[in-house]
Amino acid sequence: MYGPEAGSMATASGLSSATAQTQLGVNTVGSSPDDLVSLHESIARLLAVQGNWKRAYSHLHAALRLAREAEQSAPAIPEQFRMQVAELHRAHAAAVHASLRDSLTAAYNRRYLDQRLAELLAENAADPRSPGIAVALVDLDLFKSVNDAHGHLVGDQVLRQVVRLMQAELPSTGFCARYGGEEFVLVLPDMSAAPAVGIVERVRRRVAAHSWSLLAPNLRVTISAGLMHVAGGECPTDIELCLGLADEALYAAKRAGRNVVSYRVANTIRFAGTDDSEH
């Protein structure tokens, strides 16, 4: 990279190190190699806390280089630095994992849904031999009344338990993501329509049969779901279009009285359990 943009990046990079050194209260003029090694390690820890992983790795590598030069040793990596790099890798992986999860339910979040579903739709469209991919939009029925009658703490527990029940039978390639509020999305790749409908219908039954009264007296929870399916090699590859079709099917389930799974066959909406052919 050349020109003004490269200059700006270099300036920002220099400011990061200078800022870290200032925060640590260290003057590098006349410092010994050991002092510089300690300085780079301290800056790396500070940058890691700030989430600046790339620069943290850079400072650890600089500390390693200085340590090698000072000791004039063989290029074996000292155990101290091996452990520090491993710790940074673990912290980075944990941060990435947390950034893709919903903090309340531990389901995947909307960010992960958008990224992963786009990838899966593109893969499905490029492979006409694939059995397809199913996307189901799931909504907790009358969830506001749960919060009103039992409080938001119970409501939060309900959301977490529903996620556990939804994930109980998911295939290894499938996942559950929180779409927003009390709405969730189940994504079932490499699956034809009939078994996908069967999985979502069993989720509905499992939620309805759960002993909710153990959580709060007279508590009852059900879900409604709308499912759309895309055969291998077919469009759409657009996330919003897929979710829009699933939402239309969900709306049909709500109109049918809730606690229902509806799904689209061609341009027709059907309901799980009313036609044995979907199982």
Can you give a write-up of this model?
With 279 residues, this protein is of the alpha+beta class. Helices cover 55% and strands 13% of the residues. It is built from nine helices and six strands; from the N terminus they run αααααβααββαβαββ. Strands 2-3-1-4-5-6 form a six-stranded mixed sheet, sandwiched between helices. β2 (175-180) and β3 form a beta hairpin. α2 runs antiparallel to α3 and α6 (143-150) crosses α7 (152-167). The longest helix has 22 residues, at 3-24. The radius of gyration is 26 Å and the shape is elongated. The protein starts with a helix and ends in an 8-residue tail after the last strand. The relative contact order is 0.10. The model is unreliable at 1-15 (pLDDT under 50).
Please sum up the structure shown:
The protein is of the alpha+beta class. The chain contains 9 helices and 6 strands. Strand 2 and strand 3 form a beta hairpin.
